[in-house]
């Protein structure tokens, strides 16, 4: 069986498992992967905080190099079958694409990493350093069953000098030139609540109460107007230099990127500053009760290196009225970055040049969050997000993640196997 067919069959089997998180049930996937590796003569381990939330880990011994961890998660988000053209758990192969929840995020990546690892092991490969396989639970919710727990409680399963995870790899054409995106960092998640107080009462006599919900209007308007300080972080400067050929002034950067291609603008826009997105509001739970409190929940994303105190000062200065600030997490999660000039980048650049001569690697920062953070934080690992997506338009692929009709091109799954094998065997050599 070819590696292409092997990876396709494994992906279909994984998609047919319901690992929607919550509740997860990732042990289903861990057992399938363990049996697959065993059939290839590869010993692996099931490591779990609770029996139904298992992680699958394995190690291929290599030379004395810094090592490489292939990291991917097996849980998915929910799928509403009524919105799909096909059963979200069918794993159907249609016109060269495998359909189903998790095909892009990220069971296609899981299957490619597992097949690359198994094929190297059965060939008796001797990579420059150990290659670790960590196929984990609980990325979509992050309650501490997956990568965060492994990095802290079982560091030997994920500790390596370098790592590959999700977050990049899209093939983009800007200005007639081909670029493959490589995620070298991510923004931090720092959600908060603003709590407004009034006095509850019967809705039939609103003048006898003090409606806290009405106080939310000016606060929401102020949040919409709030403009966090803008800057060109090093990763954005490098991206602009790569795709534009120069680094424009801050006030021109977004327009220049958009002028090159709308997608380039979409990549740059959320990386020029912190962002604030009010997403939830809660007040009275009964129509005839005037609410005495109102809570606005805000999704806040900070640039790498920014601290909560900086955002709090901005809120205090720019949002009127009396309100209480409650950070949902004691400290922001994420906001980590890896160096730009590393042997891992060199290995990826060599693969890109070999795969598509003339194409270039373009570094980006994820506006969202990935498990790469935990490896950077706990072990100082250089982790990049890179899984090649060449067979599907990057904007279409982005629209399918966490949405209906998610699917992945088999060509890209095969390409992913080739990538992982290449990096494992050439990193640092």
Show unreliable segments: none
Spatial strand order of the main sheet: 1-2-6-3-7-19
| Count of discrete structural domains | 2
Number of strands: 20
CATH architectural group of the largest domain: 3-Layer(aba) Sandwich
CATH class of the largest domain: Alpha Beta
Mean pLDDT: 97
User: And the CATH topology of the largest domain?
Assistant: Aminopeptidase
Largest sheet: 6 strands, mixed
Please give the alpha-carbon distance between the first and last residues. Answer: 30 Å
Could you tell me the radius of gyration in angstroms?
23 Å
Strand percent estimate: 15-25%
Looking at CATH, the homologous superfamily of the largest domain is: Zn peptidases
Helix content: 25-40%
Shape: globular
> What count of helical segments does DSSP give?
13
Class by SSE composition: alpha+beta
Structure description:
The protein folds into 2 domains: 3-174 and 335-426, Zn peptidases (Aminopeptidase, 3-Layer(aba) Sandwich), CATH 3.40.630; 188-229 and 273-334, Alpha-Beta Plaits, CATH 3.30.70. The protein is built from 13 helices and 20 strands. The chain has helices spanning 3-15, 27-39, 103-122, 147-153, 216-225, 234-244, 250-260, 262-268, 308-318, 343-355, 372-379, 394-400, 410-426; strands at residues 44-48, 54-60, 68-73, 93-94, 97-99, 131-136, 162-165, 171-174, 177-186, 188-189, 192-197, 201-202, 275-282, 289-290, 293-302, 324-327, 333-334, 360-366, 382-385, 407-409. Helix 1 crosses helix 3, helix 3 crosses helix 13 (410-426) and helix 4 packs parallel to helix 11. The chain is globular, with a radius of gyration of 23 Å. The two termini are 30 Å apart. The mean pLDDT is 97.
